[in-house]
Amino acid sequence: MWSSVCSVCFAWVCVVFAVSVLKALLMDSEVQRDGRVLDLTDDAWREDRLPYEDVTIPLSELPEAEQDNGGSTESVKEQEMKWSDLALQSLHENTPSTGT
């Protein structure tokens, strides 16, 4: 009976050790490279560049053409997404009344 219990314990220790080794090998901070991808890219593919004129950028992503306010580099989309309404009137309306 003890031999079967010992073999089960030994098997469990082996599983725990194997899991810890796998976790150490597959850490998130380390890149796991797949060798098959290396065959898909070559020097000619890596050196190929898209001409600057062919890169399309939506107008909402570009900063304003005339910047009168001191050189802000935010795009129109970024400016629209800013939260600038402080809703101060709701603070005034929702103030609790004093018990007088």
UniProtKB/TrEMBL annotation:
<dbReference type="GO" id="GO:0070979">
    <property type="term" value="P:protein K11-linked ubiquitination"/>
</dbReference>
<comment type="similarity">
    <text>Belongs to the APC13 family.</text>
</comment>
<keyword id="KW-0539">Nucleus</keyword>
<comment type="function">
    <text>Component of the anaphase promoting complex/cyclosome (APC/C), a cell cycle-regulated E3 ubiquitin ligase that controls progression through mitosis and the G1 phase of the cell cycle. The APC/C complex acts by mediating ubiquitination and subsequent degradation of target proteins: it mainly mediates the formation of 'Lys-11'-linked polyubiquitin chains and, to a lower extent, the formation of 'Lys-48'- and 'Lys-63'-linked polyubiquitin chains. The APC/C complex catalyzes assembly of branched 'Lys-11'-/'Lys-48'-linked branched ubiquitin chains on target proteins.</text>
</comment>
<keyword id="KW-0131">Cell cycle</keyword>
<dbReference type="Pfam" id="PF05839">
    <property type="entry name" value="Apc13p"/>
</dbReference>
<dbReference type="GO" id="GO:0005680">
    <property type="term" value="C:anaphase-promoting complex"/>
</dbReference>
<keyword id="KW-0833">Ubl conjugation pathway</keyword>
<feature type="region of interest" description="Disordered">
    <location>
        <begin position="60"/>
        <end position="79"/>
    </location>
</feature>
<dbReference type="GO" id="GO:0051301">
    <property type="term" value="P:cell division"/>
</dbReference>
<comment type="pathway">
    <text>Protein modification; protein ubiquitination.</text>
</comment>
<protein>
    <recommendedName>
        <fullName>Anaphase-promoting complex subunit 13</fullName>
    </recommendedName>
</protein>
<keyword id="KW-0132">Cell division</keyword>
<feature type="signal peptide">
    <location>
        <begin position="1"/>
        <end position="18"/>
    </location>
</feature>
<keyword id="KW-0732">Signal</keyword>
<dbReference type="InterPro" id="IPR008401">
    <property type="entry name" value="Apc13"/>
</dbReference>
<keyword id="KW-0498">Mitosis</keyword>
